[in-house]
Amino acid sequence: MSSPATAAGTSFGRTLRAEWIKFRSLRSMRYTLAGLFAAGFGLTMLLMGSAGQKYQEVMVEGDVWDPTSFTLQSYILAQLIIGVLGSLVVTSEYATGMMSTSLTATPRRNQLLSAKVMVVAAVAVTAGTALMFAAFFFGQAVLIAQDVPHAALGDPGVLAAVAGGGLYLAVIAVLAVGLGAIMRATAGALVALVGIVYLVPGFAGAFPPWVQPLFDFWPTLGAAAILETVPNPDFPNPWLGFGGMCLGVAAVLAAAFVVFRRRDV
């Protein structure tokens, strides 16, 4: 029978606290978060430099101008960086050999991986939402300065789009945790993430028409439509697409738990 100290030492609360301490003590995590804001906000600044020209192009083409979506385009780059963050939470311990130590301290593997997922999800949704709000407010200020139609946070659908960007990035981070647990290597996890997030959607048009509806549930297509305030005829139910993405990520995560539990280390 385990002693009270042993039982307390392996409680979920203590495991969660330990994972949080490990997370904030690693320089790689701090650098990645700094890179998320630097690259994400930098991309926003770069895009806003051509906001007036982009607005004129949209008007000439007869499309509908969506100032909210335009200012949130940093998610395209941010999802890769947040994916690095998610994968490193697992793969960094395999790279340094610390995973054996973590498993000795927390023999319940499901508990250990669950704690990692919760820490990453909390950090990602906080950082991702902060980035989206910063990009939105900065972008709208630039649009006002350039005398381009802009949006306010209280306008219909705007708050949901900005907050949805944070949720989207959090789900991508959780996906990266699952891939990291399956691959056990940062490079392998990132290759898989790039394929899922960028390559497959990029070649969506090359698939037969009967396959096209499946892409409504693909991360950078159907789910990313939640960052738009203007109805998208290609993705009329963006939150349904986001739900589909969450189900797909849940499946990857379930596979990660199975693999993580069955391995020796």
From TrEMBL:
Signal peptide: none annotated. The keyword Transcription regulation does not apply. Keywords: Membrane, Transmembrane, Transmembrane helix. It comes from the Bacteria. The chain crosses the membrane at residues 31-52, 72-96, 117-138, 158-182, 189-211, 239-260. Pfam families: ABC2_membrane_4. This is ABC transporter permease. It comes from Streptomonospora arabica. The lineage of its organism: Bacteria, Bacillati, Actinomycetota, Actinomycetes, Streptosporangiales.
